[in-house]
Design a protein that fits this description.
heterodimer; A: alpha/beta; Peroxisomal Thiolase, Chain A, domain 1; 2 domains; 10-stranded mixed sheet; 3-stranded mixed sheet; 11 helices; 13 strands; B: about 140 residues; mainly beta; 3-stranded antiparallel sheet; about 40% strand
Chain lengths: ~325, ~140
């Protein structure tokens, strides 16, 4: 199977307390914090930061990368792309193959699967998979409180001493759409309870199709912070639930690889990590085994701990300057 | 439609690609000079890669800047080593996410990848300096 030779993540330094957002509307929030991009950060900058951390972790140069796949749900452009700009910034050669994966948080695991296939087919020797999101939501909506930002990256290849190994993949494409976001519109969530039932059914089906049920760490990123714990319970697995939701909010595809990085940070050599990448249409389940205890120079925990709070007005201003209001 | 100057400077701005004078070792960054500013040799340059971290040599704090900049904004001269050794490049750059009160000459600064402005809506990205995360902050 495919080796992970390095990984990395990125979380903006600025945060806002969800209670500070709710207070603007004379309301209360359940707690937690949300990551706020700085005025000069965007989907591309965060993707590049996560990618360079992954390359440094692998001790690899960008010039060794043959393939860059990038996933996001919050590209502010209909025509521009993300992957070629990440490829350029990390110094990939001009012959590099690139691909953009969008339209669902599941784009992150879709990109990973496609990169795994490219390696298996010997169409690439070293592949960089990156996911990055800067979510937005209209002022005063409940989605505004958890519209987060974050990124994660994986460097795949073949190495005698990889940091982890991908041991299984399975999908459940149900076609069911719960939360969705119209172009230039606000997120719509509909019937939360029914959505959660459908989510749990898709996750259970995808994870059940993996050839394993003994996991030490599980990441179930979703737009509702309570869903992951429900999924871990529904699967009846004895895994530590890893989530950045309470610190970062929902970061869609970026959050999928961010949570995976957090789970890899937590896992020691020999431990198994389960990732369930869910989005409109279904779920991809990925099983990964840690081979070493090697950590990136800046871990997800370091990014989470390195923070500075911004008040509500500044948080809105930063989002508007970032072109993602 | 990256405009010509941003297209030409993109490798320098986005990944700290620099050039060293083969005659005297002076590093030209971010501009690609024909003639060495120090020794005057013409056209003898080799490509070099700068490290991600350097040392603050001097700075000023800008208080009044056009909309789109975060003020007060430190602007600094940072000596950034070449990855392959040799003398450091003397780099002029903007800081980001840094309270001027936290900045001192001699501190280590990290080059991070940020958007510096848009041209007709298209973002132009470049390095900016910041104090490294996770050590004292």
């Amino acid at each position: 199977m495919t080796d992970f030779v390095g990984y990395g993540s990125y979380v903006p330094r600025y945060r806002i307390q969800r209670s500070d957002i709710a207070a603007q509307y004379d309301d209360h929030a359940r707690g937690g914090e949300t990551a706020v991009p700085a005025h000069d950060e965007d989907v591309t900058t965060m993707a590049v930061e996560a990618a360079t951390t992954a390359l440094d972790h692998a001790g690899a140069a960008g010039s060794n990368v043959d393939l860059v796949y990038a996933a996001t749900t919050s590209d502010p452009f209909d025509e521009r792309g993300l992957a070629p700009h990440v490829a350029h910034a990390v110094g990939a050669p001009e012959r590099v193959r690139v691909g953009d994966f969008q339209g669902s948080a599941r784009a992150a695991t879709n990109a990973l699967s496609a990169a795994v296939d490219a390696l298996a087919a010997d169409r690439a020797g070293t592949a960089l998979v990156v996911a990055s999101d800067v979510l937005s939501a209209p002022q005063g909506t409940s989605a505004e409180r958890t519209a987060g930002a974050g990124a994660g990256a994986l460097l795949l290849g073949h190495e005698s001493d990889p940091v982890a190994e991908l041991v299984g993949e399975a999908s459940a494409t149900t076609g069911y759409v719960g939360r969705f976001v119209p172009t230039a519109g606000a997120p719509r969530e509909g019937d939360g309870r029914f959505n959660r039932e459908q989510y749990l059914a898709a996750v259970t089906q995808a994870v059940g199709a993996l050839d394993a049920d003994d996991f030490d760490h599980g990441a179930f990123p979703a737009h509702d912070g309570g869903w992951g714990r429900k999924a871990a319970g529904a699967l009846d697995i004895d895994a530590e639930h890893v989530s950045t939701f309470d610190a970062v909010g929902y970061a869609a595809a970026g959050g999928v690889l961010l949570d995976l990085a957090a789970a890899l940070d937590a896992a020691t050599a020999g431990e198994r990590v389960l990732l369930a990448g869910y989005g409109p249409g279904g779920c991809d389940a990925v099983s990964i085994e840690r081979r070493t205890d090697s950590l990136p120079e800046t871990t997800t925990e370091t990014y989470l701990d390195s923070k500075e709070y911004v008040p509500y007005g500044k948080h809105r201003q930063f989002r508007e300057q970032g072109g993602v209001a | 439609m990256y405009e010509p100057p941003f297209t030409r400077d993109r490798a320098a701005n986005e990944r700290l690609a620099a050039r060293a004078c083969e005659a005297c070792g002076w590093v030209s960054f971010p501009e690609a000079r024909e003639v060495c500013k120090r020794c005057g040799t013409h056209g003898e340059w080799s490509d070099t890669q700068l490290a991600e971290r350097g040392t603050v040599q001097s700075y000023v704090v800008q208080q009044r800047l056009p909309e789109g900049f975060e003020t007060p904004l430190p602007l600094a001269i940072v000596d950034v080593p070449q990855q392959s050794g040799g003398e450091p490049a003397r780099v002029y750059g903007l800081f980001t996410e840094t309270d001027p009160d936290d900045l001192e000459v001699g501190l280590e600064a990290e080059a991070v990848f940020r958007r510096i402005f848009d041209v007709d809506g298209l973002p132009v990205h470049s390095f900016k300096f910041t104090l490294p995360r996770g050590e004292s902050r």
